[in-house]
Amino acid sequence: MSRFDWLSEYMARLQDEHVLVRHGTASRLAPAHVLEIDAEDWGRAGQEASAFGCRWAGVWADQSGDELAIFCLLEYEGDYLILSTFLPLATPLLPSHTPYYPAADRPERYVQDMYGIVFADHPDARRWIRHQAWPEGSYPLRHDFPVAGHAELGETPPDDKYSFTRVQGAGVYEIPVGPVHAGIIEPGHFRFQAVGETVISLEERLGYTHKGIEKIALDRDPHALARLAGRVSGDSTVAHTWAACQAMERAAGFTPPARALALRAVLAERERISNHLGDIGAICNDVGFAFAIYQFSRLREIWQRRSAELFGHRLMMDVIVPGGLATDPGPGALAVLPDEHRVLRTELATLFDILDDHPSLDDRLLSTGCLKPETARQFGCLGYVGRASGQGFDVRHHNPYAPYDRLAVKVPVFEQAGDVTARMQVRMQEILVSLDLVENLLKELPEGDICREMPVAADNAEGIGCVEGWRGEIFTYVRFGQAGRIARFFPRDPSWFNWPALERIVLENIVPDFPVCNKSVNGSYSGQDL
């Protein structure tokens, strides 16, 4: 099927439901197609998109004077569709997509907290990101809210009035976990209801690492925004920075040099390999198989040291910049990588054989933390969480961007398993796919510049970035204001859709298996909290 061959059928369905498309454009936010509709039709457009089979992939708002522009990202067969509408700032009321898309639940509540938009038929009116850091009636992403907040209000009170869902019944008890944890990890609260050792309900409470990313992005220049994007989620610094730069470059009508694009992909695949190595060891460690974390941590450390030697930073932070790259290792430095890949492949072959044939490991991971494909589809699960449960979407394959548009990207997909073992095996296979991609990129690495100056974007120029990070699809929206400064920045991490799945994954499992279920998902607290 060619790009957007399906769109006419979807628009015909909208017409049948008397949903008026006021304007459509394929150029405003390419490669997405944008449809502008009336606010009153927002819910019906989402309902028809759900019935049609579109994946719901995000929502964001943008203030302009006394109006709020609202956008919703949808995906179908690799094509991106953006619905847009406008609301008066004084009465921002909009139908919800959550009745048709469970994935829309938390993102809509986030927009509610940050902009004051009321989603009329949303099934959950509780705040999400607000906690107690700012008073009722204050909305941080509106223009009248100061970047520094309201220091005169004094110390933030404890958030002890949040109404968790309770399960009633004989023998049911509650276990609160977090937000402060025993390990050196980010904060997040998990409220369990259990009978004996069996979990019958889990509710997450996140938002503790909210940093005001979107607010402090305002009025930055492109290079400063790229640095900020690299800190949305530190373990995904390459992917988030690339998505932000891609959005800015598209808004400015600029294409970076071919060598820079190829090396960006090398960086992204190295980031993917590094994190997967760490996760495989950590999953095994959570069930007491310490041998694996020793071995995979060692391999990851070797990998990150090489990244530091090549690109100046273990996590390759701040290497991607608007217009290209900040540094080029040069052909001599890159020439050592194929030999290192061969050594890594040899070690992985032995280690993977051990993991695939270890009865005590199988006993803890097989059939633990199952996520049905239908549930994964409803939540829009991405990356290894989605692929372990039959959801094969990968931006590199389904909506390829340079240099992946000239590479064959084949990702592993498990149609039925959906357990911890499947999520670990997806990671194992993705490491090998990434090694192949890097080797192909290095064989055909273009000569020439690694960076050119990006022209100043026009006032109100917009762009989107779509990059396959190691957790899955990262989406970014950027709008420029005057003199090439940032007027709006919205980064959407895949963790928005993988975190809710954990609440389903852990059901009917024993409480002691929660850590390994959690690690098999490994959502980013920081990437979700913004």
TrEMBL record:
Residues 286-453 form the NADH-quinone oxidoreductase subunit D domain. Residues 65-150 form the NADH:ubiquinone oxidoreductase 30kDa subunit domain. This is Hydrogenase-4 component G. GO terms for molecular function: NAD binding; NADH dehydrogenase (ubiquinone) activity; nickel cation binding; oxidoreductase activity, acting on NAD(P)H; quinone binding. SUPFAM superfamilies: HydB/Nqo4-like, Nqo5-like. Keywords: NAD, Oxidoreductase.
